[in-house]
Amino acid sequence: MKAFPMFLATTGRRIVILGGGEQAAQKARLVIRTDAEIVVAGLDFDDELRALADEGRVRLEDAREIRADLFKNAALVFVATGSAGADGALHALAKGMGAPVVNVVDRPALCDALTPSIVDRDPVVVAIGTEGTAPVLGRQIKTAVETMLEPRLGALAALAGRMRGAVGQRLSSRARRDFWVWVFSGPVRAAHTAGHEQRAAKLLKARLDEGPGAAEGSVAYVGAGPGAADLVSLRGVRRMQEADVIVHGPDLPREILELARRDAEREIAADPVAAALEAAREGQRVVLLVPGAAAELPETLAAAQGALAVEHVPGVAARPP
């Protein structure tokens, strides 16, 4: 990656847009839903910007009087005049006056940060970037993600946020993770998606009142396929995202492990089956990753079924021609 993806905090901060035309209006549309103070500095303002100013949603300033305090406490500065010469001069001015993060429209070489395509389900926000190389592709991916996420998903996330403190007080780390997996993949999300938001909230609170059951260990025996990350099965990826522990041998390709949950414990074992069973008996959710198809469940794992939850997730047998 040439650019590290990160969300900028905007609470109590300012976003400055230098320019007053259509490009500046586009940037104002992009950031208007944040809680930042939005200041547009230009010479002649687009009608849309004037309307936003009349509504109190942005503040307009005369760009002939730019001072260093314009950039004080600024989270981000956009330079969007539509003129290459003016953009270059304003970029130099903003950086010289201490602006920390500057984005110049259509000038990647002058950008400290690049503007992604955004899927907005506030507070759930998905940002898609191509490092400025293929914005059309970024928009196509945005369209695909828009169809994947239900319109009211943000409201469910907001409900979860309101309950986060109570969940944190009542449940252990493992139990919290299991609880939220149940919320976002079970009846709570289904009820919320169907428009029954009160029922969803009641289901969530009732499950929390029940308290956690005993942590049950499990082993998912996952075939990693012939070595390419895009040949791991969808179920295998899901189990890797849910795991507490990832057990594998020394020869597993690193790109496969990139699919696993970031904070899952990684264990390289000479005897991966024995290591996986030991961790599962301690109540851990374990993924045992093995190269190839993993067409048959090892006898030791098969014998453990009943005492432990054991799942067989075969992989792809060979790389397609």
Automatic annotation (TrEMBL):
<dbReference type="InterPro" id="IPR014777">
    <property type="entry name" value="4pyrrole_Mease_sub1"/>
</dbReference>
<comment type="pathway">
    <text>Porphyrin-containing compound metabolism; siroheme biosynthesis; sirohydrochlorin from precorrin-2: step 1/1.</text>
</comment>
<keyword id="KW-0808">Transferase</keyword>
<dbReference type="InterPro" id="IPR035996">
    <property type="entry name" value="4pyrrol_Methylase_sf"/>
</dbReference>
<dbReference type="GO" id="GO:0043115">
    <property type="term" value="F:precorrin-2 dehydrogenase activity"/>
</dbReference>
<dbReference type="Pfam" id="PF10414">
    <property type="entry name" value="CysG_dimeriser"/>
</dbReference>
<dbReference type="Pfam" id="PF00590">
    <property type="entry name" value="TP_methylase"/>
</dbReference>
<keyword id="KW-0489">Methyltransferase</keyword>
<dbReference type="InterPro" id="IPR019478">
    <property type="entry name" value="Sirohaem_synthase_dimer_dom"/>
</dbReference>
<dbReference type="InterPro" id="IPR006367">
    <property type="entry name" value="Sirohaem_synthase_N"/>
</dbReference>
<dbReference type="GO" id="GO:0032259">
    <property type="term" value="P:methylation"/>
</dbReference>
<dbReference type="GO" id="GO:0019354">
    <property type="term" value="P:siroheme biosynthetic process"/>
</dbReference>
<protein>
    <recommendedName>
        <fullName>precorrin-2 dehydrogenase</fullName>
        <ecNumber>1.3.1.76</ecNumber>
    </recommendedName>
</protein>
<dbReference type="GO" id="GO:0008168">
    <property type="term" value="F:methyltransferase activity"/>
</dbReference>
<dbReference type="InterPro" id="IPR037115">
    <property type="entry name" value="Sirohaem_synt_dimer_dom_sf"/>
</dbReference>
<keyword id="KW-0520">NAD</keyword>
<dbReference type="InterPro" id="IPR028161">
    <property type="entry name" value="Met8-like"/>
</dbReference>
<dbReference type="InterPro" id="IPR036291">
    <property type="entry name" value="NAD(P)-bd_dom_sf"/>
</dbReference>
<feature type="domain" description="Sirohaem synthase dimerisation">
    <location>
        <begin position="152"/>
        <end position="208"/>
    </location>
</feature>
<keyword id="KW-0627">Porphyrin biosynthesis</keyword>
<dbReference type="Pfam" id="PF13241">
    <property type="entry name" value="NAD_binding_7"/>
</dbReference>
<feature type="domain" description="Tetrapyrrole methylase">
    <location>
        <begin position="219"/>
        <end position="318"/>
    </location>
</feature>
<dbReference type="InterPro" id="IPR000878">
    <property type="entry name" value="4pyrrol_Mease"/>
</dbReference>
<keyword id="KW-0560">Oxidoreductase</keyword>
<dbReference type="GO" id="GO:0004325">
    <property type="term" value="F:ferrochelatase activity"/>
</dbReference>
